[in-house]
Amino acid sequence: MPEFRFEPVVMPPAATSLRAEVRAFLDEEKAKGTFVPTVGAMVAADPAFSARLGARGYLGMTWPKQYGGHERSALERYVVVEELLAAGSPVMAHWIADRQSGPQILKHGAERVKKMILPEIAAGRCFFAIGMSEPDTGSDLASVKTRAVPVEGGFRVTGRKVWTSYAHMAHYVIALVRTGGRPEDRHVGLTQLIVDMKSPGIEVRPIINVYGSHEFNEVTFDDVFVPEDMSVGGIGNGWAMVTSELAFERSGPDRFMSTYPLLVEAFREIGESPNASEAAELGRLVAHLATLRRMSGSIAGMLNEGKSPVTEAALVKDLGTTFEQSIPEITRRLLPLEPRGGGNGQVYDGLQQLAQMQAPCYSIRGGTREILRGMIARGLGLR
Amino acid sequence: MSTNEEADGVRDLMLRSLDRIVEEKAENAAQRADGKPGFPADLWSALEEAGMTALGEENEGDLGLGNAAALIERAAYQTLPVPLAETILARRLLAKAGIDIPDGALSVAPPSANRDGKAAGVPWASSVAGVVVASGPDMLALVDAREASSPGFNMAGEPRETIDLGRARVIASAKVVDAPGVAEAEGALIRAVQMSGAMSRVLEHGLTWANDRIQFGRPIARFQAIQHLMAELAAEAAAGSASALMAVEAVAERSDRLAIAIAKARTGEAAGRVCAIAHEVFGAMGFTQEHTLHYATRRLWSWRNEFGSEVHWQAEIGRAIAAGGADNLWATLTAHG
Q: Has residue B62 got a pLDDT over 90?
């Protein structure tokens, strides 16, 4: 039987002092008013904040120094990420670049591209978007239609990507495109290309989301030229690249910390002497959170050892997004529902409303709950 | 070989030896299902001979608790009808109290069911050499209750008896600060570990069933509805087991009531969902005495209540965090890595 053991992760000694250092930096930022804690984990973006993180060495942490990295362990990076999310800080500008595009380029990119892009990401000056979904391609990612036609020195890309988060702030988009075959050929003939957002022929149109915020975009490629060496992992290997990337992005604290700032505010509102049901409801959430931290940290340890815990990562994302979605639903059973419009409780009210409207996206982004449960079932030998 | 590898080797040997004893002594399904036929003396002596009943004395920062927990988890996976977990629990408490540990099977009275001169819900009270009872706010006693117990069973048919404390013979007693709290927490930790083992049994059983049972011309595992249910079962079982493992490690290093509270709350909640899903997947087939699914599910339903239900422990967590102030929640969660 497949057994999922979430063994303890042994944090490097440097992690403790690093945690304190990051926490002090974030307290300072909050005191200066550079950000107000918010929910959503990967929603608020502030390029200046990202640049300050870069200057402090908190981006590209695990990469080699020759590419602007800091050669620290994946577990030290984990601590930084966790602290940034717990504080509800605006991390979205650099998030995709630091979490997945940079590591992919480091592993599978051409030397020229690595030298050009990675130091900029590590400095917090270069941001990425992911171009996977299309109007007719959602969970069924292998059906993409955007085409890249080989030309002298590279490719010409034509097609349309949607739900491209923060493309309006990004310097590059990594697009999953078809370099061979037809959409019916599924996984065959797909390639990931790094496209410079300044290229002629790219148009970015905002798609305003359900709560009125501009995070998504539609990105249209009209005969956009991409140099030959801007592929990730080579021509025709797009599917392998995408699936390994998703495995890495699924188990991090960003998959269960989205509404953590709301939980903190709920504790503040309820005060130091909760009644029995308040204590039990909030205590239950803390038990879930502590367990998720354990599981996620354990996966970080496995990844650090070079293992590939794909099913475990899907498990954590499934449990994690269910947890973060439950926080607004449970806290609204405990606290006033009508906004109070002044005095104490305004912070809570604001986060509560935003969290309720945001919550549906947690179990959609990065692979829907249903896709993940299918992956877990495969890991269990049921399909 | 590193110390860790050596420890892992010792643990593997122990667990394999437990499985062998189960094969030889407990293959009778009825016996495994239910304690009602009485104390299985031959199974117990096999465990005793293998040295498995003498764990639990070393209670500080050692391999002892880790090995004991691994054994308790496996015995629960095997749904063994013996007070192995209770004996290890009692030995830990007696060691804390500095009371001499008698030979043979032992048990512990759950402190919350101890009132009006009676201790209720005591596992195997009439079959064991001694029962550890929190006899006062700061007092732990070891009593012989063999002549002072009236019968009773939990939902799984495991003996849960009532001791008339006035009639029980006190063997020894000693001062332990907050004895009821200590016994309750240690008991909760043991039950959390047992639930982890029983949930892994239910998962295994469910996977085999889903792949074997044919309906509409194919194994029910091929249906997405079943796949998603089993994925949820696996996730809950994994979360429960992770929280129990976390508490065992924490308690081996320090006194950590919060970690125990988290484990009992999380495993108890997971157990409810795991049982509900398993019975849904097994359908009417799993809803009979004859079927073996209930060996584990009825234990899970019982164990999630014993030594404090999940709501009891959730409320304790909530009160502790609230008292520390909202802004200290994160520091508390990250205090130990």
A: no
pLDDT beyond 60 at B3:
no
Q: Is the pLDDT of residue A349 over 60?
A: yes
Say if CB B83 and CB B41 are below 8 A apart.
Answer: no
Show residues of chain A in contact with B333, CB under 8 Å: 286, 289-290, 293
Closest CA of chain A from B227, distance in Å: 5
The residues near B40 (Cβ < 8 Å, ≥ 6 apart) are B25, B26, B31, B81, B82
Q: For residues A271 and B8, which has the higher predicted lDDT (pLDDT)?
A: A271
* Structure ipTM: 0.95
Would the pLDDT of B78 be above 60? yes
Mean pLDDT of the A35-50 span: 92
The span from the CA of B207 to the CA of B209, in Å, is 5
| Average pLDDT, integer, range A306-321 | 92
- Residue A4: list chain B partners with CB under 8 A: 234, 237-238, 241
* Chain B interface mutation, best of A6, A30, A286, A298, highest count of B Cβ atoms under 10 Å: A286
CATH architecture of A250-379: Up-down Bundle (1.20)
Mean pLDDT, chain A, integer: 94
SS3 B169: strand
- The answer to whether the Cα torsion of B19, B22, B27, B30 is positive or negative is negative
**B262 contact residues in A (CB cutoff 8 A):** 286-287, 290-291
Topology given in CATH for the domain delimited by A14-126: Butyryl-Coa Dehydrogenase, subunit A; domain 1 (1.10.540)
Q: Following DSSP, what letter does each residue of A191-253 receive, concatenated?
A: EEEEEETTSTTEEEEEEE-TTS-EEEEEEEEEEEEEEGGGEES-TT-HHHHHHHHHHHHSSSG
Domain boundaries, chain A: 14-126, 130-236, 250-379
| Helix A74-86 / helix A14-32 crossing angle, nearest 10 deg | 30
**Cα separations (Å) of A279 from A272, A275, B109, B280?**
10, 6, 27, 32
Question: Is the dihedral angle over the CA atoms A90, A93, A99, A102 positive or is it negative?
Answer: negative
pLDDT of residue A245 exceeding 80, the answer is no
pLDDT at position B33 over 70: no
Distance CA A335, CA A314 (A): 32
Q: Which of the following CATH numbers is that of domain A130-236: 2.40.30.10, 3.40.50.970, 3.30.1520.10, 2.40.110.10?
A: 2.40.110.10
> Tokens 């969290």 — which residue?
A355
Taken in order of first residue, the domains within chain B and their CATH numbers are: 3-177 (no CATH), 180-333 (1.20.140.10)
Least confident of A373-382, B8-17, B166-175: B8-17
**pTM for the complete prediction?**
0.96
pLDDT of B1: 40
CA distance A110 to A113: 5
Asked whether residue B60 carries a pLDDT value surpassing 50, the answer given is no
What's the mean per-residue pLDDT of chain B? 92
Q: For the stretch A324-338, what's the b/e string if a residue is b when 16 or more beta carbons lie within 10 angstroms of its beta carbon?
A: bbbbbeebbeeeeee
Rounded distance between C-alpha atoms, residue A122 and residue B165, angstroms: 69
Residue at A162: amino acid letter = V
